[in-house]
Amino acid sequence: MSSYENPPTDPYGAGPQDPNAQQSGAYGQPYGQPYGQPAGVPQGVTFAHWGKRVGAYVIDALIAIPLFIPYGIAAGMASSSAEVDPVTGQMTIDEGSTGLALILMLLSLVLYLAYFIWNYCIKQGKTGYTIGKGVMGIKLVKAETGQPVGAGMSFVRQLAHILDSLPCNIGYLWPLWDAKRQTFADKVMGTYVIDQPKG
């Protein structure tokens, strides 16, 4: 028999098998995700209720309020240092207190930005939880993997919340009737907020 001849066929007529062909198991290819369960989210996980999401936001916002105390002090200083001449109506401002007021305003801004970056980008990106989400027992995850999204994508998701506010804030209400309880930002970013107590 020469090496150029066809190999013998199977006695049952199946023909030769290609050695590069993919082998399937005894019962064929496995099924995909069960109907109704998104990929990446483990079976039995529930999407966070809108009330829990609002509660988490309120907690995060309440924590930020003290960061604006220097701003309030600065605004009070600026308004108390202004004097209006009753004859000419011209306003004069004490420059010494204005400089201190500006420093306090900048301090307030820096404190808030540091809190925002740490809580919403770094902490939420690495763990899936902001402080408020941790208290409420809800977690932000990537829809494809079920894992936290990372700091960069968490920041981009915060920017995507602009979409939620554009049409009269309807994007923030969208989870009330959406099957996956997603805001517009969640849909664009491919994220879910799920019930998962911090533990």
Question: Could you estimate the helical fraction of the residues in percent?
Answer: 40-55%
Please outline the major beta sheet.
Answer: 2 strands, antiparallel
The helix-and-strand class reads mainly alpha
The tally of helices reads 7
Ranges where pLDDT stays below 50 over 5 or more residues in a row are none
How many whole angstroms does the radius of gyration measure?
Answer: 30 Å
What series of H and E elements makes up the topology?
HHEEHHEHHHE
**What value does the average pLDDT take?**
83
What sort of overall outline do the alpha carbons produce when their principal axes are compared? elongated
Distance between the termini: 70 Å
User: Can you tell me the number of structural domains?
Assistant: 1
Strand content bin: 5-15%
Labels describing this entry:
single chain; 199 residues; mainly alpha; two-stranded antiparallel ribbon; two-stranded antiparallel sheet; 7 helices; 4 strands; 46% helix; elongated; RDD family protein; transmembrane helix; membrane; cell membrane
